[in-house]
Amino acid sequence: MKTLVTGATGFIGSNLVFELLKQGYEVKALVRKGSDRRNIQGLNIEIISGDLKDKASLIRALDGCDTLFHAAAAYTFWARDPGFIYETNVQGTGNILTAALAKGIKKVVYTSSESTIGINKNGNILTEEVEASPRNFTGHYHRSKYLAERLALDMANKGLPIVIVNPTVPVGPRDIKPTPTGQFIVDFLNRRLPAYVECGLNVVDVGDVAKGHILALERGRIGQKYILGNRNLTFREILAILESITGIKAPGLKIPTWLALAAAHINEAVSDILGKHPRVPVAGVKTACRLRYFDGSKAVAELGLPQTAVEEAFSKAVSWFKENGYVRN
Questions:
Q1: For 160-184, what is each residue's pLDDT tens digit?
Q2: Domains of the chain, each with CATH number or no CATH
Q3: Can you give the pTM of this predicted structure?
Q4: Among the options 141, 146, 196, 226, which is catalytic?
């Protein structure tokens, strides 16, 4: 079976490509000109040069494909021009899904976000049943992913055989950019994390997320959403795991939310002037300050989503960052 993967050079996308090849799939990858291709270098895949904004390139990329994994996204909590985030995450999603419908693709898996999940009746544990309220979004990335997911569900109503997956916080190898979570791990390893803000989040091995995508393709119900997650942890618990793995003393200073937000606003104001990505974006701090615990039992029960120990996921991430030059000696 031949499948097209968008976002193949990224964190989730590259891990997905590796797992697809391991399971015997024939893979095509849509890659933008100038993209960092280190994550897929040397792999036995067909690379198609194109862009989510170029509709003709999407039609070409889907030629001969049976299925599609749409994992590409602009994953950032700050952009000097936020329009770029919407062009990629919303318009780009519309373009690739419209092309898939026109080409008669047999099944599509769309990589959404945990941020599109809303508060459930029990208050703290979030499930697929409730969508987030737009007024609660912390920035353009989350808003764009919500709009893109609504578009994907609309495409399902128009006849596109699509399944939506909602990864929580993936951890593991090939976090090349790195993602905000990966950057936090790098900062910890480089002893650049003097304090922390307490929060709650759900962590999952990125390898399990990759497998979850394929399981969604093979077993997922059309028009359904599946949270790809594992273990709910406080930030302090995550720090304790990293300390246990690395031997590096975790910071003991917990700073209040207002102070972290004040520092982020100052950092972002300077970044706006300089045109550089802020080290601590405001949306990132607002996201980190929220309690986001998830129930991934639907994906476990219906798809067979594996639940690799999060300690192993963090250990693999630490090893990868060390081996690839992210950590000072």
A1: 999 999 999 999 999 999 998 999 9
A2: 2-171+204-229+294-307 (3.40.50.720)
A3: 0.90
A4: 141
